[in-house]
Structure to design on (381 residues):
């Protein structure tokens, strides 16, 4: 019962922290001007206004498809780039009679190419933009502090200009349809529709299609982008911060209520292995690998090195060692030579090999008593 009460306290704490983090965060921003966002830079008001004017509205999601042929489509600041096919399909839809309102700060490469939109490299103020008389009842609109002006061609009629005369919006006949390009999408966003004549501009744009025509908002190209996966998204968005605080509270609860699964088992101390074990292991490895020739060579070389160390002769080069050994201790040299010949000629199996190896070992490491009995002569010095 005590454990259950502890988990209830942790859960309540997590909910309180998550709720506080959610309500303490500012309203979610919508830099892509989504029609599903109620933020100041969202465009949900444009969607609701279209519905109020009798236009069936759709948010284009899942797969990219334009509204009906006589409809209107809003494209606000694509954050997922248009493919060449999407841009080509959009251009063909306009040629057949569709109306496109394309509002973006910097534009999309493929869509700009398909619609022949050219943008200048400089920035101008968009807080006061003057309207062309072609827009009924629109004199001035208000937008962002800086916009990238448009470089219109002869068939692209400017409908908005900045205070210093640069085009910030134009209208163009495109086949049987119409394109409206706006350099500043903020003039159609929620927090700007009540400024100057922005609301009237939205009404005029909806008037480009027949009453009851479908109006679509492209949300397909507002898909997931790389910055949505950045670590700062966990603290800059309300839901991300709430989930983060919830995980922190759960972690603290696990630390406070965590218990071992059993008693701590001490690691046993490592025991040093005897030299005999290593020798047996190496011998077994050589036997299993069938390295008979290698084993014979190792035994012979080890015996020669031991005899060289005992007689004070250099073990290398091997030919000089044998010449010096025959000169200094001919009997020892003869015994070592016979033992090595017997070792290399042993073909009777492991027993014969073991006997030859024991004989080599007795020559290389004679018993201490025999060492004391060995006379020291001038030849053995």
């Amino acid at each position: 019962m005590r454990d259950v009460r502890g988990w209830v306290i942790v859960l309540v704490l997590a909910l309180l922290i998550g709720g506080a983090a959610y309500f303490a965060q500012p309203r979610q921003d919508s830099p892509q001007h989504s029609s599903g966002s109620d933020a100041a830079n969202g465009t949900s008001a444009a969607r609701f206004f279209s519905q109020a004017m009798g236009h069936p509205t759709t948010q284009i999601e899942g797969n990219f498809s334009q509204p009906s042929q006589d409809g209107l489509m809003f494209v606000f600041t694509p954050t997922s780039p248009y493919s060449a096919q999407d841009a080509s399909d959009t251009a063909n839809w306009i040629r057949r009679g569709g109306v496109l309102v394309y509002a973006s700060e910097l534009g999309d490469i493929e869509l700009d190419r398909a619609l022949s939109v050219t943008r200048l490299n400089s920035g101008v103020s968009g807080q006061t933009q003057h309207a062309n008389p072609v827009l009924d009842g629109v004199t001035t609109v208000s937008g962002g502090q800086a916009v990238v002006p448009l470089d219109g061609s002869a068939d692209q009629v400017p409908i908005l200009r900045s205070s210093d005369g640069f085009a910030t919006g134009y209208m163009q006949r495109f086949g049987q349809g119409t394109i409206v390009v706006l350099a500043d999408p903020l003039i159609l966003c929620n927090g700007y529709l009540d400024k100057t004549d922005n609301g009237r501009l939205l009404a005029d744009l909806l008037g480009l299609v027949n009453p009851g025509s479908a109006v679509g908002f492209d949300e397909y190209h507002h898909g997931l982008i790389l910055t949505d996966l950045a670590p700062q998204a966990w603290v800059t968005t309300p839901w991300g911060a709430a989930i983060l605080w919830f995980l922190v509270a759960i972690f603290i609860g696990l630390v406070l209520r965590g218990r071992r699964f059993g008693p701590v088992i001490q690691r046993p101390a490592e025991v040093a292995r005897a030299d005999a074990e290593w020798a047996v292991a190496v011998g077994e490895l050589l036997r299993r690998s069938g390295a008979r020739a290698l084993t014979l060579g190792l035994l012979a070389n080890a015996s020669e090195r031991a005899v060289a160390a005992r007689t004070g002769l250099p073990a290398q080069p091997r030919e000089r060692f044998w010449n010096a050994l025959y000169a200094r201790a001919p009997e020892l040299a003869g015994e070592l030579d016979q033992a090595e010949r017997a070792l290399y000629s042993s073909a009777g199996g492991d027993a014969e090999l073991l006997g030859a190896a024991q004989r080599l070992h007795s020559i290389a490491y004679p018993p201490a008593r025999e060492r004391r009995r060995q006379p020291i002569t001038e030849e053995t010095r």
